[in-house]
């Protein structure tokens, strides 16, 4: 997953509003969001190459999402899959803060990552690229392929669009998911320099990506009320355009209520 923006405890009706795009090579096999056969408490998409996930919940109220940290000059090699971080959290019995405390011991074993984990104890951010692990306060945030809230053009745009939607009460699923569909690329002068080619920096600067072999594979919307009632909608895509859409309504323990 490569672009996430979310409002945490910043709206009177919803304690969490999150929209996310997962970007990946089209040939990488994966399954859309579903309850896993071998762990039927987990609702998430699944990467069939490493058997992890990029975003998901479990029925105990845990939530997690991960993005990679892009560094073309020093690519991570022979490290553990980032999808383990999310899948392991959803499978384990530890609370979010306990899980992150244990993760500090071995987080450098994984490919460079940005990680969100949440449960009743709170919503937390963790990375293995130098940022301190910490609990997030109420606010509107964005996460892409650099550290949390790094002001890349597409990140600033979706954060502002989410802020505008909240302020104008335009909180329909179509409007919120449409925020992530912007295909406008950033001017060259505003592009980040992550050590990849200029053509790739341009391609990856749009919120929604569609190239011949790489692009946005899913857009996911999460809306959770303070009582834990949660709606999750996922729209899939391939190189040809939209695929099936799924929607789940879950009565969960609410994030950050303990």
TrEMBL record:
InterPro entries: TANGO2 (IPR008551). It comes from the Bacteria. This is NRDE family protein.
């Amino acid at each position: 997953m490569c672009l996430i923006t979310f409002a945490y405890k910043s709206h009177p009706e919803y304690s969490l509003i999150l929209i996310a795009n997962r970007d990946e090579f089209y040939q990488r096999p994966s399954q859309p969001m579903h309850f896993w056969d071998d762990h039927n408490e987990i609702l998430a998409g699944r990467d069939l190459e490493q058997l992890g996930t990029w975003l998901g919940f479990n029925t105990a109220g845990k939530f997690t999402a991960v993005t990679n940290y892009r560094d073309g000059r020093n690519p991570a090699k022979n490290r553990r899959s980032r999808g383990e971080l999310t899948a392991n959290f959803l499978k384990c019995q530890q609370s979010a803060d306990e899980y992150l405390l244990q993760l500090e011991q071995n987080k450098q074993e994984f490919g460079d990552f940005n990680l969100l984990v949440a449960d009743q104890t709170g919503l937390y951010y963790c990375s293995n690229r130098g940022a301190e692990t910490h609990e997030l306060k109420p606010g509107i945030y964005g996460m892409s392929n650099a550290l949390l809230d790094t002001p890349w053009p597409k990140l600033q745009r979706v954060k502002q669009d989410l802020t505008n939607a909240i302020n104008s009460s335009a909180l329909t699923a179509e409007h919120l998911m449409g925020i992530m569909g912007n295909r406008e690329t950033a001017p060259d002068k505003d592009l980040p320099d992550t050590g990849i080619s200029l053509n790739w920096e341009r391609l990856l600067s749009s919120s929604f990506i569609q190239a011949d072999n790489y692009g946005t594979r899913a857009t996911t919307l999460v809306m959770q009320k303070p009582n834990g009632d949660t709606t999750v909608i996922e729209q899939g895509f391939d190189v040809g355009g939209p695929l099936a859409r799924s929607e789940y309504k879950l009565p969960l323990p609410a994030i950050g209520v303990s």
